[in-house]
Amino acid sequence: MEQLDISDGFDVHDYRHGLKLLKQDRGTMTLANRDGFACPACGDPFERLFVSERRTNTFGDPGSRFCLARTEQELLLLTH
């Protein structure tokens, strides 16, 4: 299982073969994990990935365990 490498930021194009874009708007995107990539925070496979360049975000109840990871440019929220 390949783990998302965020040591030098996160580039969705590096993982496009296994992530499916579900929603995108200005500054955010939501992706589904179709290839079983591992979470950069805990190492377990995740279901959805929310990526945001915004300084603030509001989240509803994800309904499951989640992890947060931060790069210099983005916040990543991964639901399991």
Beta-sheet strand percentage? 35-45%
Q: Report, as a whole number of angstroms, the end-to-end distance.
A: 15 Å
Secondary-structure class: mainly beta
SSE order, one letter for each helix or strand: EEEEE
The largest beta-sheet arranges its strands as 1-2-3-5-4
- Overall pLDDT confidence: 93
Number of helices: 0
DSSP strand count: 5
Q: Which regions are unreliable across 5 or more consecutive residues at pLDDT < 50?
A: none
Structural overview:
It is built from no helices and five strands. It is mostly beta strands. It has a domain at 51-80. The chain is globular, with a radius of gyration of 12 Å. It starts with 18 loop residues before the first strand and ends with a strand. The mean pLDDT is 93.
